[in-house]
Amino acid sequence: MSDKGDHSASSSSSSSAPATGRFAPNQTLTLAAMLFAVSMTFIDQTIVAIAAPDIIHELGLSASGMQWVVNAYLLTLAAFFALGGRLSDIFGHRRIMVTGTLVFVIASALCGAVPRGGGAQTWLIAFRAVQGVGAALMFPAALAVVVAVFPVERRGRALALFFGLSGALTCVGPLLGGWLTDWTWRAIFWVNVPVAIIALALTAKARIPRNATHEPLDVPGAVLVAVGMGLSVFGLQQASAWGWDSAATWLCIAGGLLVLVVFGALELRTGHPLIRLRVFRDRAFTVDVVVLFLAMIAFVPVFFFASVYAQVSLSASPNQAALYLLYFFVGFGLASQWGGRILDRRGARPALKLGCALGAIGFALWAHRMTTLAMHDQWPYAALAGAGIGFLLAPASTDAVNRAIDASYGEVTGITQTVRNYAASVGLAVFGTVLTHVTTDRVTRTLRADGLPDRAAKRTAHSIAEAVTGHADSSGPTGSGPVASATRHAMGAIRLDFAEANRVVFYGMAGALALAFICSYFHPGTRVTAEPQPPQQRTEDGARV
């Protein structure tokens, strides 16, 4: 593997990305525009879950149908990230960002306008999938716009702000969802319309360059990566329903990975590949991507698991659960700014090592305190875990983008976002299974100790575990029979059982970050201080630049 060493930025042309047009882009407006655009994608990852009961009640959806309303968005997001990044290089970052925003917001409006009746479930799932396609086009293009507009020596702090604010918006989703649902659940989709209008207006005023390479699109590669990512993520999503011992689960996961292997072999022989795999020859880039993968196994799933833990074990309301997550984001937001400064001054390696170490320690201490069932005992460790992720997220992402081949920023952001999204799917699937199994085992023991027969205890424990982890229609046995009575009598112990199960999950998150810490030592520590030389480009009117 080859490393990119320090590069001097002695000329003005190497200190910033090439811009076309008469005026230089407005960096502040550009960053604001891209933040407004991507804020919709982050909020939509969590906002729908809060409105789920109202959606099910009004439209008559099944529990599995509602799960697909959530999964359809995440599935298409994973499948089309790489394509979105490449399209932004070929047709221009601004053009694809605007296109993705329009697709996303039109689909959002149509989700909010779903009619009642037999076709409601199909309608909602279909337009949620279209939302995912729009987000997959928008996000890598928006990130590439920020990268292209900010010079390399200021890019760390700019992207730290980008990731810090956009990441914190994921926590806003439950709060905003609860407030909007009090009016109507349809507003959780309609709220994207004014946000998109602001993003597009700021984009128009920011004078963002419209460079495009106009290279041919690798259509076979685009199909293969979409099928491979989509199939494997689908298998991970369905593992909780089908079971890990199901042939269908492993057929989807293994089949998707096999398609991705075929995709990799094809890309090595294609003149204009969707992804230039030679970028992985750069050891620093490879380490950045591996660290991102391991960190995202914890970062994205923590929203779900911490929220459910707060509501079940701490008896918090959904809004209180969202506030519980704010402890994590206070640490995340502050540390992300420091991480960006470390990258600009010293390179990515110190930030990666510090972030992975703090994250591993924070998640481990947080896990240890979960069985106290007291929120005030946990906030320092939640903040420490968030700080760890904050220190490493922007530096790893920015350092990877800085090492783009031929200034293919959209392509590389597509790679990093695909890796992040896939890691999140792995984390949710694996940790979700662990949570269900450990909860079932511990609740079974509790119910046995409370006098329930073995078979009834196992059946009831499984029902409770499925309910609290979001895979069932009810919250457990009801009525006045012995099973319901034993369950109500043991509810305090069951809350503790669920906390102990979550502790296992959070120790797993700490383990993922500990492994990332080991990987960070393989980063060569070199810095990129000059822009990669772009290929010959054309503006959107066809002029050479």
| Amino- and carboxy-terminal Cα gap | 32 Å
Mean pLDDT level: 82
> Which bin fits the share of residues in helices?
over 70%
Taking all Cα atoms into account, the compactness measure Rg is 23 Å
Number of helices: 18
**Percentage of residues in strands:** under 5%
Largest beta sheet, briefly?
none
| SS content category | mainly alpha
N to C succession of SSEs: HHHHHHHHHHHHHHHHHH
Shape: globular
Unreliable sequence segments: 1-22, 472-487, 536-545
Count every beta strand, where a strand is a DSSP E run of 2 or more residues. 0
Output the keywords:
mainly alpha, 0% strand, 545 residues, disordered C terminus, disordered N terminus
